[in-house]
Design brief:
Chain lengths: 368, 269
C-alpha cells in the first residue's frame, strides 16, 4: 500500500481564524479514511482543500505524489459528494450523472453505456428522465454518489453525505457505501461528526479537534486506546476521573482522586503527575464490599433500560455521576444501596493531561 | 338555515367585490379598444358614430406614428438586452463576492428606483449636455438602460436567494472550467429570474414618457407621440395602434407565463 493523498504541514486561516493547524496526514490507497470531529473542527475545510475549493494558507497537498495546491478543482483527479447533494436542478438524472463524462468529451455511446452501468450499480435504473426534485432524499444521495463515481476518480471525497437522511436509511446507506467502496477499490475520504458512523465504516479514523489532528488509528485503536481526553469522551461513552498518581510500579498505577483511590496501568507517567483516567461503562464492575486496591464508593441512583443492556447510574460522594453497563436480566442492587465500583487495571486508559499542568503547579505550591 | 343564508350572502359579496376590482382594472383599457373601432371623424373623437376597422388601415398611412413606434421597439430591445446583461452580471457578482461597502452598494441600487422620474430625467439631461452627447437614439437607450438595470438586478437576486452555490462547485469538481460552469449551470438555473427581469425592463422601456421626454432630442418614441397628439384628443389611429400593442403584449405574457411555469416546475426542489 502506498499513500495516495498526503497533507504536509497544512495550515488554513480564514481571516484571523486558524481553522486547520499544522495538519500532517497520509491516506493510503484503497482505504476508507474518516475525518471525525464536532462541527467547526476543520474537517470539512480539510476536505475542501483536497478537493480544491479552498487553498491552504501554507503547507502542501499531494495527490498521487503530485502537489495540487495550485490546481483548480477541475484539474484534480478527485471527486466530491456534497452534503447538500448539489444535484443540478435543471438537468435530468441521466444528464446529472453524465455531466462529468460530457465535460471530458467522452464519446456519446460510451457515456450512455457507463451511465447505464453506474445507475444499475446504485439501483436507480428507470429514473433516467426524472428531475432531482422528483426523487426522495435517499435517491438523490445515490445520484450524487453515481455522478461522482462515474468519473472513476482515484479518490472520492464525501462531506457528511448521509447527514440529511433519517436513521434507518442512514444505516442502510452506510452499509451500501462500504460495500461500494470495497467493490470499486477506490480510496474514500469521509467527513462526519457521527462517531458511530465512523466506527462502522472506516478502515482508519482521524479524529480532529479544534483544527488539530488528535489521533489517527483504526476504529479499535481509537475506541480502546484513546490518546487524548477529547478522543476518549467524543468516541462512545466513558467515565472520566482526574487525580494525582500516588504509586506506580511496573506500569501499575494507583491514582488519588477526590473521593478515593483508583487503579490502572500504563507507562511513561511520573509520581504525582496529574492525569486523566477513562473507563468505558462496559468495563465497570461493582461489588457490595470494598475491592483491594480501590477506594471508591457510590450510591446507585437509577437504572435505564436500553434493550441489550441496562445502564446503571451511580453517584460518587462528590456528586459526580458514573455510568456502568450491566447485561439485561442480571440481578441488580436496589437503587439507594452503596456499591464499590472497580475494574481490571488493563481496562482503564491513562492519559497525560496538558490542560491540568496548571493545577499540578498549584497543588505543589506550599500553603501560605 | 340562517347560517347557510349568511354563507351564501358572503359568497355573493366576494364575487361582487372581485367583479368590481376587475372592472376597475379593465374598463379604461376596454375604452381604448372600443374607441379604436369608432367611425367618428370629428374631434375630440369621443362620440360613437358606428363600427369601423378603417383606423387599422389608416394607421399604416401615418408614417410619423409608425416611425415613433419603430423607435420605441428599437430602444426597448437594445436597452433590455444591455440592462439584462449588466444586471445579471451585477447580481451574480454581488451574490458571490463579499467586499467592503457591499451593503452600501446594495442600498444605493434602490435610489434610481425610488427617486422621482423627473429628477432622474433632469440629471440625465444635465449629464448628456455636460459631456455633449447629441440627444437622440443613443441618449434614449442610455437613459433606459440606467433605469432598467436595478429592476433586472432585483429579479435575478430574488432567484439567487434560493440558489445553492454548491452546484457550481459540483460542476467544477466534475471537470467543467469556470466559463463552462457559468453557461451550463449558473445561467440556466437563473434563467427564470433573468427572463422576468428582462420582461420587466422591456415593459418599463416601452411605456416610459417622463425620462424620455428630457433626453429624446428630435427622436420621437410612441408614448411621446401619443402625449403630443393628446392636445387635439386621442386620434382613433393611435387607439388602433395601442390596441395592437395590447394584443401583442397579451400574447407575449401568455407565452412567457406558460414557459416560466414549465421551467419553474423543473427547478423546484
Amino acid at each position: 500500500m502506498s499513500s495516495i493523498v498526503q497533507l504536509e504541514g497544512v495550515n488554513k486561516y480564514f481571516g484571523k481564524n486558524h481553522v486547520v493547524k499544522d495538519l500532517n496526514l497520509s491516506v493510503e490507497e484503497g482505504e476508507f479514511l474518516t475525518l471525525l470531529g464536532s462541527s467547526g473542527c476543520g474537517k470539512t475545510t480539510t476536505l475542501r482543500m483536497i478537493a480544491g475549493f479552498e487553498e491552504p494558507t501554507s503547507g502542501s497537498i499531494l495527490v498521487e505524489g503530485q502537489a495540487v495546491e495550485e490546481k483548480e478543482p477541475f484539474e484534480r483527479n478527485v471527486n466530491t459528494v456534497f452534503q447538500s447533494y448539489a444535484l443540478f436542478p435543471h438537468k435530468t438524472i441521466y444528464d446529472n450523472i453524465a455531466y462529468g463524462l460530457k465535460m471530458k468529451k467522452v464519446p456519446r455511446p460510451e457515456i450512455a453505456q457507463r451511465v447505464k452501468e453506474i445507475m444499475a450499480l446504485v439501483q436507480l435504473t428507470g429514473f433516467e428522465e426524472r428531475y432531482p426534485s422528483q426523487l426522495s432524499g435517499g435517491q438523490k444521495q445515490r445520484v450524487a454518489i453515481a455522478r461522482a463515481l462515474i468519473n472513476r476518480p482515484r479518490v472520492l471525497l464525501l462531506d457528511e453525505p448521509l447527514g440529511a437522511l433519517d436513521l434507518k436509511l442512514r444505516k442502510q446507506m452506510q452499509l451500501e457505501l462500504k460495500r461500494l467502496q470495497r467493490k470499486l477499490n477506490i480510496t474514500f475520504i469521509y467527513v462526519t461528526h457521527d462517531q458511530e458512523e465512523a466506527l462502522t465504516m472506516s478502515d482508519r479514523i482521524a479524529v480532529m479537534h479544534d483544527g488539530i489532528l488528535d489521533q489517527l488509528g483504526t476504529p479499535e485503536e481509537i475506541y480502546e486506546q484513546p490518546q487524548t481526553k477529547f478522543v476518549a469522551t467524543f468516541i462512545g461513552e466513558t467515565n472520566i476521573f482526574e487525580g494525582n498518581i500516588k504509586e506506580l510500579a511496573m506500569g501499575r498505577v494507583a491514582v488519588r482522586i477526590e473521593n478515593g483511590v483508583i487503579r490502572g496501568c500504563g507507562y511513561g507517567f511520573s509520581r504525582n503527575e496529574y492525569i486523566t483516567v477513562s473507563v468505558r461503562p462496559e468495563k465497570m464492575r461493582f461489588s457490595p464490599v470494598p475491592v483491594k486496591g480501590f477506594q471508591l464508593e457510590a450510591q446507585v441512583k437509577d437504572y435505564v433500560y436500553v434493550g441489550s443492556v441496562v445502564k446503571c447510574i451511580a453517584v460518587l460522594q462528590n456528586g459526580m455521576e458514573i455510568k456502568m453497563d450491566r447485561l439485561a436480566g442480571e440481578e441488580l442492587p436496589e437503587p439507594g444501596s452503596i456499591i464499590h465500583p472497580w475494574w481490571e487495571e488493563k481496562d482503564a486508559v491513562l492519559l497525560h493531561n496538558p490542560e491540568n499542568q496548571v493545577l499540578e503547579m498549584i497543588d505543589s505550591m506550599p500553603l501560605v | 338555515m340562517k347560517r347557510k343564508k349568511r354563507e351564501r350572502n358572503r359568497k355573493r359579496l366576494s364575487a361582487l367585490f372581485c367583479a368590481l376590482v376587475y372592472l376597475f382594472l379593465f374598463l379604461p383599457i376596454s375604452v381604448i379598444v372600443v374607441n379604436s373601432m369608432n367611425a367618428t371623424t370629428s374631434k375630440p373623437y369621443l362620440s360613437w358614430k358606428g363600427f369601423t376597422l378603417d383606423w387599422y388601415v389608416k394607421l399604416f398611412d401615418n408614417s410619423s406614428l409608425l416611425q415613433s413606434f419603430g423607435n420605441t421597439m428599437v430602444i426597448a430591445i437594445v436597452s433590455t438586452l444591455l440592462a439584462t446583461v449588466i444586471g445579471t452580471l451585477g447580481a451574480v457578482g454581488m451574490y458571490r463576492y463579499k467586499f467592503k461597502g457591499k451593503a452600501l452598494l446594495d442600498g444605493l441600487l434602490y435610489i434610481p428606483v425610488v427617486i422621482p422620474e423627473i429628477v432622474l430625467g433632469i440629471s440625465l439631461l444635465t449629464i448628456f449636455a455636460l459631456v455633449d452627447i447629441p440627444r437622440g437614439m443613443l441618449t434614449l437607450i442610455l437613459a433606459h438602460v440606467t433605469f432598467c438595470v436595478p429592476y433586472v438586478i432585483f429579479n435575478v437576486r430574488a432567484r439567487l436567494a434560493g440558489y445553492d452555490s454548491s452546484i457550481e462547485e459540483a460542476s467544477l469538481d466534475l471537470g467543467a472550467n469556470r466559463i463552462r460552469t457559468f453557461f451550463e449551470i449558473t445561467l440556466p438555473v437563473l434563467a427564470p429570474g433573468i427572463a422576468g427581469g428582462a420582461l420587466l425592463a422591456f415593459t418599463l422601456s416601452i411605456d416610459d414618457v417622463i425620462i424620455s421626454y428630457f433626453v429624446n432630442g428630435q427622436t420621437k418614441t410612441f408614448p411621446l407621440k401619443v402625449m403630443e397628439s393628446i392636445k387635439s384628443g386621442v386620434a382613433p389611429d393611435v387607439n388602433a395602434l395601442s390596441t395592437l400593442i395590447l394584443l401583442g403584449t397579451i400574447v407575449l405574457v401568455v407565452l412567457t407565463q406558460s414557459d416560466l411555469l414549465k421551467i419553474k416546475k423543473k427547478v423546484k426542489r
